[in-house]
Design brief:
Length: about 500
């Protein structure tokens, strides 16, 4: 018997779970989707929520692809993950992943679409893919248009099911790349969506072009939902739906200014619905705060395994089993270090956040730096303000005349920020009125400051101890751009790079 088989047998014996009793696990993760997404029709997500549990206060650990996915897999905050806590990083082999634990317990594990990415998971010595065996060969014929990922997710999932050993449980990671940019411009309007059906938040100019950009985002949210529906249909066809724990979420917020790569609500507030047949009572809404670091312990417990040492997250199973709120789930913590390489010498933009029922407290550890990368340094994705994805909204707001015309909105989205931000989210849901200097909120501010600092020290955040290991981490981008990248590229090269994209960026 192999070492892995011995580990699996020991794990099953310890938990007392019979092999055939363990659920299958379908983990569905969208790419860049904020919750809620008003105006988007999501009947499949609504069905999962209606037949299961809808979590209304679910937050990613970080508003950036790689660190967010690292937190999902490990159950840890990004400051506990070393080089797995940054975009284009790597996965240190001393990090324990829930997918590997399931493999060791004789689960078949595989994925389609975007898995742990972007980055080089092998660089630090990891020998197993973070999310199992890849199933990405099937393609749509034809794809709807060039901005949609051509992979046929449902067909790839069926290939995985056909390859999985009969009678054995499985865990499948469906990493849809929508609604990540690029978008087909005007696709929302061509679907029949209306400009007057869009609500533009107060930190963007309200223009027809920005409204249309939001409609294009909605179109890709709906495409994502339709693909989830095809995957669920594959389960139903094989009579596997009832014994499959389905999780539907996203990795981070929508790819717009002041959303993705920000700790404001549009960057970190995530969709989350979970369904497990008759195992959990359906039709419930959970208002407790939950985090992506909770997924790993939840899925391990569902499989009859115990969470591993060092996890920051806590299992969601008690919330799935009971309608009673958990008083301990009164807040959530979020964080960011490096997204793109968009500052000289590879400098990051370090932020930590504490979200409670009423307030959002943000600590900007380097307020002298540009949170977006700034207007002068060309980032690794060949644009200025590189931590904001290229898009019509960004193009409009950064045009010199519009910077002056919409100075307030430009400053909110692209300007530098103070060391502390404090928002009353109930009174100011868009978080545009910083109360950190307001005497009426000093007591609440001090309480949140103390609470965040205590938690960061308890969980070993190097940043709160005055250390910065992140700037030295290699930027493992496949194109080879890194810390030496500078502003020497001509404008036409940058523009051509921004407009490229017959496929989704990883």
């Amino acid at each position: 018997m192999t070492r892995r088989s011995l580990l699996a047998s020991a794990a099953l014996a310890a938990c007392g779970t019979r092999r055939q009793d363990r659920p299958n696990i379908l983990f569905v993760i969208a790419d860049d989707m904020t919750w809620p997404s008003p105006g988007a029709s999501t009947p499949v997500f609504d069905r999962i929520a209606g037949e299961g549990v809808l979590f209304t206060r679910s937050y990613c650990a970080s508003p950036s692809c790689t660190p967010s996915r690292s937190a999902v897999l490990t159950g840890k905050h990004i400051w506990q993950l070393g080089e797995a806590g940054v975009l284009y990083g790597t996965m240190p082999p001393d990090q324990t992943l829930f997918t590997h634990r399931l493999e060791d317990a004789r689960y078949s594990v595989g994925f389609t679409g975007k898995a742990w990415a972007p980055g080089d998971w092998r660089a630090a010595g990891l020998t197993r893919h973070p999310v199992g065996k890849e199933f990405n060969t099937r393609r749509l014929d034809p794809a709807p248009h060039a901005a949609i990922d051509p992979r046929d997710y449902a067909a790839n999932f069926e290939d995985f099911l056909a390859a999985a050993p009969a009678g054995s449980p499985w865990c499948f990671w469906f990493g849809c790349t929508e609604p990540h940019r690029v978008y087909e411009k005007g696709s929302g309007l061509r679907m029949g969506k209306k400009l007057d059906g869009v609500t533009v938040p107060p930190y963007w100019p309200d223009t027809p072009g920005i409204r249309s950009d939001l409609l294009d985002y909605q179109a890709e949210v709906e495409w994502f939902d339709s693909q989830v529906g095809r995957v669920v249909a594959a389960l139903e066809k094989r009579s596997l739906l009832n014994n499959t724990l389905i999780v539907v979420t996203s990795d981070n917020g929508m790819p717009f200014p002041r959303a993705k790569v920000n700790l404001y609500e549009p960057g970190v507030h995530m969709p989350l619905a979970m369904r497990w047949g008759s195992r959990i009572k359906g039709g419930r809404r959970v208002e407790d705060f939950v985090s992506h670091v909770d997924f790993a312990p939840t899925l391990l417990e569902a499989a009859g395994l115990t969470p591993h040492e060092g996890m920051a997250g806590r299992s969601l199973m008690p919330l799935l089993d009971s309608a009673a709120p958990d008083p301990a789930r009164d807040c959530v913590y979020t964080a960011l270090e490096r997204h793109t390489m968009c500052r000289p010498d590879g400098a990051t933009y370090p932020i930590r956040g504490l979200r409670t029922a009423r307030y959002q407290y943000l600590r900007n550890f380097a307020p002298d730096r540009w949170p977006t990368g700034g207007p002068e340094f060309v980032s690794s994705n060949l644009t200025y303000h590189g931590d904001v994805d290229g898009c019509p909204t960004k193009d409009f707001m950064t045009a010199p005349g519009n910077q002056r015309r919409f100075a307030r909105e430009y400053e909110l989205c692209f300007g530098k920020r103070p060391a502390e931000e404090f928002y009353d989210v109930n009174a100011d849901p868009h978080q545009v009125r910083n109360l950190a200097a307001d005497p009426a909120h000093h007591a609440a501010l001090a309480d949140h400051r103390t609470r965040l600092e205590a938690y960061l020290r308890k969980t070993g955040d190097p940043r709160i101890e005055g250390r910065d290991p992140w700037q030295a981490y290699a930027y493992r981008q496949t194109t080879g751009f890194g810390a030496s990248f500078n502003t020497a590229l001509p404008a036409e090269v940058r523009e051509a790079a921004r407009k490229r994209g017959a496929h989704k960026p990883e």
